[in-house]
Each structure stands twice: as structure tokens, then as C-alpha cells.
Amino acid sequence: MKKTDSNYSRRSFLKVSSLSGGGMMLGISWFASAKPLESLGELNIEPVWQEVTSFIKIASDNSIKIFSPNPEFGQNVMTSLPMLIAEELDVDWKQVEVEQGNYDPKAFPRQFTGGSQGIRMAWKQLRTVGSAARQMILTAASQAWNLPVTELTTANGMVTHAFSGKSETYGTFAAAAAKLPVPTDIVLKGNQSFRLIGTPQKNVVAPKIVQGKPLFGMDYREAGMLIAMTERPPAFGMRLKSFDATAAKKMPGIVDIFPIKVFNDDHKFAGFDTRSFNEVIAVVGKSTWDVMNARKKIKAVWEVAPERKEMGVNNRETTVPSGLESTTKHYAQMLEMSKKPGVIERKDGDPEKAFAEAKHVIERTYTAPFLAHNIMEPTNTFAHYVGDKVRFVAPIQIPDWIMPSIVARLGIPKENISIELVRMGGGFGRRAYGHYMIEAALISKQANAPVKLIYSREDDVSAGIYRPSYQLTYRAAFDENKKLIAFHAKGGGVPESPLHANRFPAGAIDNYLAESFVIPSNITIGAFRAPRSNFNAAAEQSFLDEISEYMGKDPIAFRLELLQRAKDNPVGKTNDYDASRYMGVLELVRDKSGWGKPENAGKKRGVSAYFCHNSYAAQVIDLQVKGDQVTVDQVTTALDCGVVVNPEGAKNMAEGAAIDGIGNALFGQLTLTDGRTDQRNFDTYRMIRHNEAPKKIDVHFVKNEIDPTGLGEPPFPPIFGAVANALYKATGKRFYQQPFQPQLKG
Amino acid sequence: MIKKYSVKINKKVHQVKADENMPLLWVLRDILEMEGTKYGCGVGSCGACTVHLNGQAVRSCQLPISALAGTEITTIEGLSAKGDHPVQKAWVDVDVAQCGYCQSGQIMSAAALLKTTPNPTEEDIENFMTGNICRCGTYTRIKKAIQLAALKS
Fold first, then answer.
1. Does the structure's ipTM exceed the value 0.90?
2. Which residues from chain B sit within 8 angstroms of residue A293, using beta carbons?
3. CA of A454: which chain B residue's CA is closest?
4. Which residues contact A41 (CB under 8 A, 6 or more apart)?
5. Which residues contact A417 (CB under 8 A, 6 or more apart)?
6. Rounded to two decimals, what is the model's pTM?
7. Which of A200, A298, A392, A573 could form a disulfide with A419 if both were Cys (CB 3.0 to 4.6 A apart)?
8. What is the pLDDT of residues A15-32, one digit of tens each?
């Protein structure tokens, strides 16, 4: 056991306790006081649960219930976060039952799913929660037995006094422990003492998932609930002018049809309140089928919306242009911008001079379309607005970020808003934008009924908050010895630049220039699994591959050479990455894939490595191309995300990232013609399917003692580059435009 | 037109009043309150709503209630009594699911495959399962789970 950073714990306990309202609660921090459930009578064998803290309930039969605070969208935090608590609580994982915590900032200080932050941010916090509860149980045992706490030990949910041979369950002391103050002097285990962390554990929700239990927002129902859907403009850049719902209202099962305004005109945008259309027509009825049919009968008139200003919370004004935009025009605009000077984001040395004096320059431009999230469970939310209160059952990644907008739009205090968090059928960033909760609440208020708002797949695809369309132009300058002397990246997009100016290869090249540009647009964009990185990795890693070939260097050896330079003698002081860890994943993937080994000489393989969300990932892909068909034989992934809490879940996530990435690289595209998305559903939006998935995926983790960093996003971006590089080996053609697969035709 | 229908689902006969074109998917979810069968696309392109019709895997979003007379439907709720069908057990053993939303449909497709092809090759699995989309990317684990279920059943 080692004592760790108790200041951290004390501060966070105090901080949260001040939120909990003082009085009797003060000093018990974010944990509620003991609230033993009423016994339901002698014949009832239900255990009596003691709420030791808001995260932990222990029953008389020594069952342990742990609440998982973060919203779950498949990243398996419902297993890995409670593992952190159980480790320090010193209970047998088999005793533990996990429950999703509802939105409750007093009980759970951080309920956030995004940015690969879940484990990273919970690493100390949730272990502290477990350790504090364990100490409370020890204190209760010490008082009950009248023995010094220092003579007591815990293991598998038992307190033992070795000297006297006394041993009792946690359940015996839970009631007394629950009345104790939460200790502030927290001792956490050293990594070498872990018994649960680092062991593979299966998804605790799997038994329910395989039975199709109603775990998702889409599955929620209650008495009197109506179904709502919304009708919106057919194209970005349009708005509602007028509508006639006379015929639609006469359709069977229809209760009401009315327009709603998602935000007030003076709404101050905070960043995650993006919505595609502000005025939509709500159709409310008794069943989904009724509502779907009535929607078709609405006679709506849409018009081209004028340019408008949107005010941000910091009085930052954004101009949303007028017009019906098209992908072909976006690509032409980006190409035009790439030829003009951009905004300089970083400059090292004298890149202009180096390029002027270069013996050879390689310039390549990489382009990618918008991508739709395609969460398998379409967007939805249940809301019931009664009086001045609203109750949600919502699939939402970051409830804290939409709360201010809900408060502002509904004009009710946040105390009057409750959110039951449900499992999300995918998120990938899409459910970080909770405008649909406001829509559901407004519809419930107007319809005066509990309502479940559902997006059809077509709604979800065609009115999304997309991964932006991007472009990156790279230039590399070489001297007469083919030595790389300067590097230039110019990145832009619709409507944001993908550039991370301080990431590799910045820091590894003396003369370096990074520039950005943006093209304003009325297409709504947002976070999509590893924002910006998911494009940068594809472009940058393809370019490095191409220039390593020109230099006659092995692509892994060339990257390692650059990283060695960045490690030994970095250029500039603001490099975002740790060159050693970057090298570590490249070396691991090289060794595990048998890179350069004679037996692999005939394979069409590509390599790629990238850093994002505080973690490092490298991948080697082996594939074959026949006509326009790509067969992926194998993916080897190396990851450095620090300590791995649950290797089983982590591997699953990394495998999924590879498949998801290969799919998006080969097929993914959301294109527009006159503001209308060309893809509306899975018959036109090409997703990767079973027969296109890799035959084999190996995942290897760098073993170290670094506190966990991100995992959900980091293995996603590099695979795009690996695919492009392997396609080159297979076809002799370089691929600069995503998606790649359509270019294999003809 | 709203009519009365009698449908046999999971060996039980249900009487429902519904529009003749209402797909089985919405009959299950909105009328019979059986939410195990998921809505994914409504156009038969994703497989999330897969059920068995006389033992064969079909997309319930494409099956109007008026076409179900004399048929036997099995949904995920009827696949096994306690979630212990070999395919369900293999899914847990291999730790297939991420978000889990598509998995009802994947499991129903896999169970139908194993009924006709008890020892499928990798190619059999890939071809049969191609209609079931998973954005989380659990395909390789699904294949492993089907192979395990084949071995154990």
C-alpha cells in the first residue's frame, strides 16, 4: 500500500460537499447520509440495502451494489468504472451488482461521456470512493468489536481480525458505517496491489443485452405516453415558411400537430447546443406507425433561409451563411483556399527559405467528406412536462452541457429538471448534442402528455451534426541528398479546420509551417469519434508514407527517426506529444506484426500511428484488392493508454475502432446536393458489413504504470492512414480522397 | 384500414387491432410492448429488427401485419426462456456487445443460420450476417461467438 495524493481527495470531497446543501450533510461530502430502506416484512427475502455512500449500497446478505455514474454508450464504463470502486472497496467482483446512476450532480460529481475521458478522470476519484467506504466499514467494525482499526484487514467483502480469528461480512457493518462521516485521509492501493484492475472482466450488462431487454431510450414507455416525430426542412439552408396539417390531423391515431421553436431567437450558444433546424413541425400520435404516416400528409412550404447571426455565450458572433450548399462546391472552395495564404498556426525556422532552396518538393492534397454518426439507435428522448417541472428519460452523453440550454428555453430552474440516464445505442459524439431533449420537452408541454420523441433513420442521417468535410495540403522539401528539410501543412474545412499545429511531425523538423482556413457553412457539424484527428491521421500518415518511399526509407524506421529527433532535440517548446510513447507503439506494432520479416514480404500492408486524447496508437493492416473488393486479412494494433483497467473491454473497443475506421475510410460519406443530403438511410449510406470486416484483429497494449489515458478514440484515427497505405501496396495507386473504395471501380 | 388480426408470436396467439400495413416491428414494439426487436432503419437495410418467421430470419420492419396469417413468429424474447440459447450464451462468453443495440437482430440472424447450417464456415457466417449492421464494430467477435455456439450446440 502506498499513500497517494490525499490532498486531491480532500479537496474534491470538500468541493462536492459544499454542493450538497450544508446542514446535516456537511462533512459527508457528496455522499448522502444513511437511508436504510424499510424492511418489507418478515416473509420478504429482499435484502435490506444500506446506502454507505451515493455510489455504494451494501445489503444484509453482503450483496454489493455499485452505481456507475457516467452515461454508457458501449464504451463499457458500466463495467470498468465500478471495477475502480470495487478494487479499493476490497470486494469480490462476483458479489457486485452494477446499476446506472441517474443524473445527480450532488451524488455523482462527474457524469460525462466524451473525449475518451471516462477512466482517465475517474482513475483517482472512483478509487477514492471505494477506499473511503472501505475505511468507513473498518471503522464501524472497530467500534462494534472494540478493537483498534489497525488490527483489522479486509478482503472479498469481509472484515477480519486475524489475532482473534473474528471475521464478519461488510453487510454486518453497513448500517453503522453508513452513519459515519466520510473520511478525508484517503489511502489508495499501489498498482502492484491490484487484484481486480487489470483482469479481464465481461460486460456486466451482457446478459440483458442478449435477451433484448428494454435498456435503451427507444425502448422506454409508460402509461399514457404518446409518440412524437418532427418534420423539418428537406435541405440545409432552408426554413419553414408555412404548413397545412388539416389532412394529417385527420389521420388515425393523431393527437396534435404543431410547430416548435427549439431555441429562442436570442439564444446564447454555449458550444454543445447545436441543432440542425430551429423550427420544426411536431407530429404527436398514439403509435410510431400512425405518426410516420401522418407526417407524409403535412403540406409544408419551405423557403431558403437568409443569412443569420448566432450569438455565443461570450458574445462571440457567428455568421451562418444563406444558400443551398453542395459537396462539389465545398471541394472546389477548399481547393481554392488551399492555394491562398492561410492563418499561420505555427512556424519553426525558416520554411519559406527552405522550400525556395529545396532540390525537390512533394505536395499532396487530401480531402474527406462529411460523415454521419449513424448511431444504431436513432435519436430519441422521453419527456414529461408537468406544471413547471420536466422529467426526462434520455440517452445523453453530457447532461451538464445541455442543462443550461434546457433551463434557458423552458424558463424553469434546474432543480425542476430530472434526467434518468438510459443506455445509449451508440453515441460517437452525436449524443453530446442534446437539442432533442428540448424538442421533447416542448412537445410534451404543448401536447400536455408524456411523450417519446423519435427520429426516423432518415431524420437521423439527413439532419445530423456531422463530422466536418476537411482538406489538408502537405508539402515536404528535400535537399540534394533527399534529406527532409522543411514541412508545410495547410488544413481547412467546412466549417472548421482540422489542423493540430503542435502535433507530430511538428517538433521533429527544423523548418515547419502550419496554416489553417475555414469555409463558413450552414451544415451543422460537431464531435465525431476523435474529432479532427480522424481526418488528420489519414492525411498525415499517408503523406509520411509517400515521402518515406521517396527517401528510400522504411516507413516505420522513418517515423522512428523523426520521433528520435523530437525526443532528443525537439524543435519548439509546445509539442503536444510524448515522443517516447509514440515510438513505443510503433516498435510494438512493428514487432507484433512481424514488419519487414521475410515471411510477410508478399503481404500488402500499411502502417500508421497517431496520438490523440492523451494516448498513442499504431496499426498495421494487411489487405487484398480484387476488382473493387477489399478483403482485410489482419489488423495488428498497438496501444499505449497507460494502465488498462479491463483488458477484455479495452480489446473489444480497439477492435471496434479498427472496424469502424476501415468502414469509414473505405465507404463513409455524407454528401450534399443543393443542401439536401444524398444519403438518407442505410440503403444509400454505405456502412461496413460483416463480410468486409478484418478476418483477424490483434490488440497489444504497452505495459506501463502510467495513470490511464484515453481509449475510446485513439485507436480510431490511425487505421484510416494504414488503409490508404496498404491500398497503395495492393494497387500501386495512392489514395487522396475519402472514401477510398469507390475509386477502386473502373 | 384498421382491422383485427391474430398473430402467433413466441408460441402465444395475440389479437391485435392495427392498420393493415403496419409492420410487425411496430406491432411488436408499440402494441404488444415487446421492445427486444429494435428499430434501426425501417427499410430492411440494417437487420436490427430481425425476427424468425417460420424459423427463417426476416426483417420485421418489412412485414405488414396483414401478411402474417398462419405464420409463427419468434422474437428475441422467445428465443429462450432464460437467455440461455447457445447463441446468447456464446455472445456473453465472447463478450460481443459494445452498445448492444444491434445485438438482438444479430443474435436472431445467427440463431437462424445455425438452424439450417449447424457447422457454418467463416464464409457462410459472413454471407449470412451481411444484412446486420453494427457501427461499434463487433463483427469479428460476432463471428467468434457463432463459431462457439456451433461448437456447443
1. yes
2. 19
3. B39
4. none
5. A389, A390, A392, A403, A406, A407, A410
6. 0.94
7. A392
8. 233 223 222 222 223 333
